[in-house]
Records
---
Amino acid sequence: TINIPWPRAGMTDSDYIFAFNKVVMPIAYEFSPDIVIVSAGFDAAEGDPIGENHVSPNGFGHMTHMLKTLANGKLILALEGGYNLDSISKSALACVKVLLGEPPGKLGPIIPSQDCMETIHHVIRTQSKYWNCLAPVYYATEDRLPGQLLVDMAEMLKMYRTKNLYSKYKLIPVPLSDGKLGQRFTNLACCSGDLYNKEVVFFFVHDMADFRADTRATSNSINVSNSYMIDTVYLYIETILNNNHGIIDVDIPPIISQPKNENQDLRELLIFLWDNLIDASNTKKVILIGAGRGCRSLTGLISERDYSVMEKVVCTIMIPGPNEVPSVSKRADLSTWYQS
């Protein structure tokens, strides 16, 4: 059983063909079936009101054409349905033509969406445990041999970054309690040593640096000499400090075992930093900068410390990446202030 769970409607020929090329057909060749039976529902067809996807008749024809290469061509398409008779007729006709030996109609350029590529990556990570044709993109920590030391890559990056921020910019880690905040975020929040004397403070919340690794196809081991950490945050920090402003820099770690608590944990951290570093200081003006997942956590801070935030924050900058900028809707006056 191989599931490919699309995260949304609106998937196209490119997404389905990409999934076939990367997952469906490699596994099918390795499995080497004696016969292929397709539950030929056309819910994904263009025009289907429930599927809401955009697979063309030519797209279904190409998938049928690929499946014909299995099991000496022993292929059964058992019509199941769909919810638009016109879409079903055109799609089924394209498949039957391929069964009768006609080539499938031409497709446009295959350019899968970002959602498709992320989904296929996760599917390969799961299925590579069971199929040799898929390059392994996981490491089963429960299968490690006795005597092996496992060090989380995020911990390594965190230690390097903390050392670098201090040596280059004299930013110091904010002391946190021994409770949940300390266990989760120690050394991820740093600030200027003279923060309390700064009139302008930048509160910068962003994702952890990006790590680009060159991996070996058969083992998933990293070729260290061709792997890099890409951190675009340093330019922001240098600019802020060169203008004699203060900074609170928060590096958001990767999501771990309980992502449902992620936003709440980050919100509690930002509230702690606000109460102890901003409200308790002589700071007159605060500029909030959120990047990536930092955007949503900052709006949580705004909602929780509304009056204090409205009094001190003079500008909010959101750099959301692929995510939409989150809104603030706790009160009408707060929402109006945030939008302006």
---
Amino acid sequence: MPTNIDAFSRDLLESIFRYGTGLNKPRDEEGPFLLKASGPSEEEDYFYSSDFQVAVSSVCRRWRAIALDDPVLWNTLHFRAPSDIRKARLFLSRTIPKNTATMGLNAMGFPEYPTQNLLDILILTVAPQEYVQGENLSQAQLAEIFSILTPETLRWRTFHLQVQDNDCRLCARRALTQDCGPAPNLETLQLYHFEDYEDAEDLWNIIHRPPRMCFRNIAPNLKHVSLIGVNLPWLSSPYLGELESLELALHPERIRPPYECWEMMLRSPNLRSLSILYSGPKQADEFDVSLTWPTADSGRRITLEHLEYLKLADLDSDYLVNTLELTHIPNLQKLELDLIEED
């Protein structure tokens, strides 16, 4: 009886291939968001290497047939260099369901894609002064990436995007609001715009445009949202009220959510993780008293029944106290504070 590797069954090889493929993927215990709100990092542990599945698919005909037939080995698409675009086109072709005719429809009328055919996506672009042709990504490559991905929006499961200049931001804005259709399988969304502004006018050019609706406002399974330097049409984004993890960061006062939407997000019945870094609800001023917050004795305290993790960073102490006075967090397990020159 043969005992060498050729005797391994197909099921056993599939398990080995999936295990090896998963070794380089970000671990679940690190949280759902790959990008750090504190700023772009040189640490790239969150970036996924596909060397393993490429290697096993090149060993022999049998291994190649098994590897190419398993979409789990190819459904993670990470982009940080032009070579990743070519690779993604190939990987994407290996994740398409073989028999769409047998798929049913969900309650909203969208195809019920098998889990193994859903896509996990990360896109990293760089600031203009850091762009090196052939080595990293800028606006031209971002447009090409979106041309590949937007036809598959129905299959997006996680989507992380980092942009560091206005051209890339406008490209992403156009793709997410105009080109992408509904995202019924999207569970994690992280949009990250980090840019060093030369002056106040540059910042104004970024924040004066009102936000637009993403994914036709259809993302019924969205559980984890991270918005870093990015805002949404707060009051017309119903999916923000059903979250498990929420991260808001780097929001100037003008683009922060009104208290009404802040309250809606925090009242998400399953919210377990909340991170606020230089963000929070917008405050009223002499020009718009409609933004006035409720008082602590108004009966509108927000109870975060299931919240276990809370991080607060770069917040003025008075603003922070006023915000927390309107919340009740009975089951908190971990609190992180990083305040501005405060005790």
---
Amino acid sequence: VTNVWYSVNGERLGTYNGHTGAVWCVDCDWDTKNVLTGSADNSCRLWDCETGKQLALLNTNSAVRTCGFDFSGNIIMFSTDKQMGYQCFLNFFDLRDPQQIDDNNPYLSIPCSEHKITSAVWGPLGEFVIAGHENGEINQFSAKSGDILKKAKEHTRQINDIQSSVDLTMVITASKDNTSKLFDSNSLDHIKTFRTERPVNSAAISPTMDHVVMGGGQEAMEVTTTSTRIGKFEARFFHATYEEEFGRVKGHFGPINCVAFHPDGKRYTLTVAVSPHWVFSFAVIVIDSS
């Protein structure tokens, strides 16, 4: 079940009921009108943000790992897992064409047969999607032709998360190779590297400061035999320019799976998606980082 919360005081407003499996990804459009969710129940669903009504159901052959609206809110993308004999696909639907939704027929479907997509975000102007793969590679997929526009291979292991800067000019990655890296969105040029001693599950760029926050820790399967000190379960802050760590926030007893900054830049949260007014999450921890 996906929950929606007020980001100001943590009050829960309601739920979006319909999925029967774990929800792997959540996104809301720019005006917080619609919500998109992808699940292990082999479906991607579109919801009315305010009422919780399901607007569209897109069935897939495998779990939906990533999803997102382009900046206009008219085009959605989602990727499916490589499992149960099915390969990974990156699908694009135009919400302005009801026939695509009714027929469950994307206007573009890109097969990713070699290495599945593990994270993805839209690039500037909605011209392409930046996708991270299980082999550490980053690809730009054209939202019109499906061609790979650019590639980058700076990570040595799986990319767990990709998030954009507020102006969409940069993206930050989080990887199992114990690093987080900053890239130019258009050129995929590698800009900065932030190093840790444990796998990084998620990283985010501050919308107001030259800061990044990272979360991760020891692999979940090993947590039961590890103390919080050794497991490195802190949220870690780095300066985006100097690559230096300047702060940590403790408190978690297991790996941090996702981090995001509040749009005002003064708070961050363990969350799935953040809009200017609402937080979409299973469990929310908001901490003043000022």
